[in-house]
Write a structure and sequence with these properties.
Layout lengths: L1 H7 L4 H9 L4 H16 L2 E4 L1 E6 L25 H13 L4 E6 L7 H14 L4 E5 L5 H9 L4 E3 L7 H7 L6 H14 L2 E8 L6 H14 L3 E6 L16 H14 L9 H6 L3 H7 L4 E2 L29 H9 L4 E3 L9 H7 L3
Parallel strand pairs: 1-8, 1-9, 2-3, 3-4, 4-5, 5-6, 6-7
Helix pairs in contact: 3-10, 4-5, 5-6, 6-8
Length: about 350
């Protein structure tokens, strides 16, 4: 079955369910995923400088620590000047992609975001700008793209309508989430989607629905990582997702989407000290250390105990280089764009 998945990049729902639900194929999955990842991307690991610029959010997702109703959060916003300073510092450290991520904060209007993006591009024209601002109208996405944004991350979180309703308030809709992703792709962004692993009420069937949606969308980047609980949410009593299932799904995703950019997420590093290294050996090829000002890193707490200092900090490039090298890979100092030519991918893996 692993050979079939590697060769055909697809399985039936029943075959996928078997792979997802059991650990007996994990070692073979990881080996094949690592081989395919090296065939397409070599030993390069792409680094993205993450700037978490606001923890205000108008939404009330049941799983999220910065949800609007969480009154225990100390809220903050970074100014335009602070964001630019983070980029300047990151550029000097070798980062050639900046990821601007925040809650859905109306303070950051189209006008302000366009100005920020334009200024970053003016200073660092050889860099890519990735945005993660949540759901916005298509015209908003278009304006910011025209200002110079290159990529957009919008994890769909779950493609199962029933599951979606269990995770979100009535004011939000899966249909709108998907429409935003299609709009972003139509505009020309390199789009990132993805889902939580082990979120409350998740089933094998809902994971398969996630994979089928990704096959329709064919995003440039697929971000998956373990769900981690937060004490100030309605899901405070639920268990966090597992490292094992997260790694298994990373390998499956790599085999089904050989071209994709797959991050070894901060969440992986939070649930296990070597979680991100394990992610890199199971198919991932991107890491996103934190460029945010030190004083706010602990405040962007989507989940509890998030790693945000020490070796997670982007400033510790030597530590980051060493960690990546321990997996047999090496950090590449360039934009790290997706390899989107399917024929190139097929040729690279010998099909």
């Amino acid at each position: 079955m692993i050979d079939k998945l590697t060769r055909e990049m697809n399985l039936s729902d029943g075959e996928l369910a078997e792979l997802i639900a059991t650990d007996r194929h994990d070692a073979e999955l990881a080996r094949n995923a690592d081989r395919v990842r090296q065939s397409v991307y070599g030993k390069d690991v792409y680094i993205r400088g993450l700037i978490e610029f606001s923890n205000y959010c108008k939404n009330n997702c049941f799983y999220c620590g910065i949800r609007q109703s969480n009154e225990a959060v100390k809220r903050y916003r970074l100014s335009k000047e602070q964001i630019l300073s983070c980029c300047d510092e990151g550029y000097g450290l070798g980062f050639r992609t900046f990821v601007l991520q925040g809650g859905e904060d109306p303070y950051y209007t189209d006008e302000l975001m366009c100005e920020i993006v334009s200024l970053i591009k003016a200073r660092h024209g050889d860099c890519a700008i990735t945005l993660s601002l949540g759901e916005r109208p298509k015209a908003s996405y278009q304006a910011i793209f025209d200002a110079g944004a290159d990529r957009y991350l919008l994890r769909h979180e779950t493609a199962d309508e029933t599951h979606y309703r269990m995770l979100h308030p009535e004011s939000m809709s899966l249909a709108n989430r998907k429409e935003c992703l299609w709009n972003l792709k139509e505009i020309g962004y390199q789009v990132g989607a993805g889902f939580m692993v082990g979120s409350p009420y998740q089933t094998v069937s809902s994971i398969i629905a996630d994979i089928r949606f990704l096959q329709e969308l064919r995003p440039a980047m697929i971000g998956i990582g373990p769900y981690i609980t937060h004490k100030e949410t309605p899901f405070k009593d639920f268990k966090s997702g597992s490292l094992e299932l997260s790694l298994r799904l990373l390998s499956i995703i790599r085999l089904m989407f050989p071209y994709a950019l797959l991050p070894a997420t901060t969440a992986l590093g939070t649930i296990a000290p070597n979680g991100r290294e394990l992610g890199l050996t199971h198919g991932a090829n991107v890491v996103m250390p934190n460029l945010s000002p030190v004083g706010v890193r602990k405040l962007y707490e989507l989940y509890e105990d998030k790693i945000c200092t020490g070796e997670e900090a982007a400033e510790c490039r030597f530590c980051l280089d060493r960690r990546v090298a321990s997996t047999g890979y090496a950090i590449a100092v360039h934009r790290g764009d997706v390899k989107d030519a399917q024929q190139e991918v097929l040729a690279a893996i010998g099909e």
